[in-house]
Amino acid sequence: MNVIKSLFPAGAVALALAIPAVSFAQTMPAAAVDVFIGTGGDGHTFPGATRPFGMVQLSPDTQVRPFRQSYPWASGYRYDDDSILGFSHTHFSGSGHSDLGDVLLMPYSGETKWEPGYPERPFSGYRSRFSHKEEHASPGYYAVRLSDNEVDVELTASDRVGLHRYRYAKGAEAKVMLDLRTSIYDYAAKNLWSRLRVRDNTLITGMRETRGWAAGRQLYFAIQFSHPLSSRSLRNMERDVEYRGFAGPGSGPGDKAVVEGKALVGALDFGVPADGQLEVKVAISGVSEEGAIANLAEMPGWDFDAERVKASAAWNEALGAVAIEAEPEMRKMVYTALYHSMLAPSLYMDRDGHYRGPDNEVHQAKGFRYHSTFSLWDTYRALHPLLTLIQPEQRNVDFVRSLIESQKASPYGILPVWQFHGLETWCMIGYHAVPVIADAYMKGLKGFDAEEALKAMTSSAEYGPYGGLQHYMKLGYVPIDLEPEAASKTVEYAFDDWTIARMAEKMGKKDIAARYYQRAQNYRNSFDVKTGFLRARKSDGSFREPFNPVQSNFGSDYTEGSAWQYSWYMPHDNAGLIKMLGGDKALQDKIDMVFDAKVDDNVYAHMEDISGLIGHYAHGNEPSHHVAYLYNYAGAPWKTQQRLTQVVASQYNTTPAGLSGNDDLGQMSAWLAFTALGFYPVAPGSNEYVIGRPFLDKVVMNLPNGKRFTIRAPGLSKENIYVAGVTLNGKPLAQTFLRHEQITAGGELVFTMSNQPNKEWGQPASARPYTQTAY
């Protein structure tokens, strides 16, 4: 294997870290990814090592103040920081909430410091400074030099195992701090219990039970070392009790092989390795310590370089579903977006098929792989539709069956709302597992029981105690005097209901379809035709007064938004919206007002989730994501093309701050991936993709069915942003949408680009995308 020059220049400490070169051409997809995009600003992504949809997501944590929940550090890492707290094994990619950060390891030499310390006070703890010049990462791999600790660190991962390689200074003792307190949260409020168990001089296991975002979450681990321990010290920091030991359990005075408590830390000493190197494998499990030990078998041996190559190959295979030709910056942005779209939902199942479900009991998966981390309010919009096109059918079956099995085990009998590590968080609104399942079924996904799925969907839609559903079913809307965020809940429930109707109709369930098609019209009950805005109504039928369309607060009429952002949310019935507003021109004019408004910086400053503003359009949050495509429904696709150019140019770039808002487990990235291809799923469940404009010169989609769909855009440039015409398989395309079966049949879509808009294309009603109400 070739060896490249050390990433970390030699200095006073002779740490020559020779990183083996990975044998792939720089034109391979993984080489185009920049994992640091989104690690600054509000992106909340992490740069560490993982596999596609991997259970282990091993990454550095840099939070400035130890043990404190903080919005900017939701993923544990922030590019602006200059010190690293350690390397933990579970992370969210782009969430708006802090959690995870389980099983933190930090290599060091010299004096043991039991607290992480503060970045403004070097050497005040085990934290170490680092430089981005001595940091490198790519899909499946991360490397950094810890300048204070004098250790070079490399990380890679399989699905369930994280592998660390540490290189210490010549003659230095190899030590590792193991901290079960640290997490991307306040440990004093979060840790319910934890345990460290010394199995022998190369194996430590343990667990942690937490009550953070998901109450009662249990995480088990097994840590294996390439060299035997020479000594160890385990401390319960809550009680200030220390237990010292030597090679194995019970081998010294005062030794203790098992320590339990809420604040456990271990200082592990491996003496001076002959080669100055220590490798560490960490397997995790949601089931038991024994399950974690068994998961270690996923990564036999100690060949770090081979595991790194496997991780890179896994990413090249996954990203290879889309072959992109484009100018370098756009190619990097889109491949990075595809990378971020393949981090969740993540595997959450032991090698033997056991997993912990929403009832906190252990279950056995049969015929599928259980996945969790479903940020459904975000990801049903574009992420899951994207994955139906770029992931193997079995992976998508895994997602759907995981949702259905979670409903069976739910104490409430409903599908997940926002689930991670098998447990419900009740975050956000809607029952958006429903459109994920319906969209998959409508697109022909096999491998799950449709009758069982429909039952799970209707059970969720009719569970009265959840989110004001009892009032919604009785009144036709959610009343604001009885339930917060009522306007948003009404329209999101209505969309979910429409997807149930679509699936039921295809299954021949006419009575169910009719009932839910009727419920899908409930969005009208919260739309005020006099003002032209979606508004919250009270239980007596009146709209709440006073009304201010820019007002937005947590728990108010809307969810993370204002009337300006939510008044467009009836993606299944945009013709109905057009009629309520007064016609095509009225819709066009009002969307123009959204984008062109002069909005004071302070209007939305109190809402950290409302970001990426263009007027009132907030691209950093999901309710705005389909708005630019709505011009197509009013016969003006050229305006969609214009606005998409504006959005992509202002909301995405290749810097660490290259995402304008939380990536939200891949939704922000999926939006860019779809938009760059030239189309977007405005209404999942319609089997249609609304055509926008391409941002890539050529794309070949290698579809799950083995066919290829090619997209070309001759003449694409910064000036030529408009679509002069479109052909599909050599024939002119009059419609401003693509049907799913047109893509999966394979073929070629060609955009002819121009610097002038074609204002005739897409005007007739027959050319417009699906909508429940007739034009």
TrEMBL record:
GO molecular function: hydrolase activity
InterPro entries in alphabetical order: 6-hairpin_glycosidase_sf, GH-type_carb-bd, GH92_a_mannosidase_put, GH92_N, Glyco_hydro_92, PNGase
Domain Glycosyl hydrolase family: 292-754
UniProt cross-references to Pfam families, sorted A to Z: Glyco_hydro_92 (PF07971), Glyco_hydro_92N (PF17678)
Signal peptide: 1-25
Gene3D superfamilies attached to this UniProt entry: 2.70.98.10, alpha-1,2-mannosidase, alpha-1,2-mannosidases domains, GH92 mannosidase domain
Keywords assigned: Hydrolase, Signal
Origin superkingdom: Bacteria
Domain Glycosyl hydrolase family 92 N-terminal: 33-285
Stretch list, region Disordered: 755-775
PANTHER family with a match to the protein in the record: PEPTIDE N-GLYCANASE PNGASE -RELATED, SECRETED PROTEIN
Stated name of the protein: Glycoside hydrolase family 92 protein
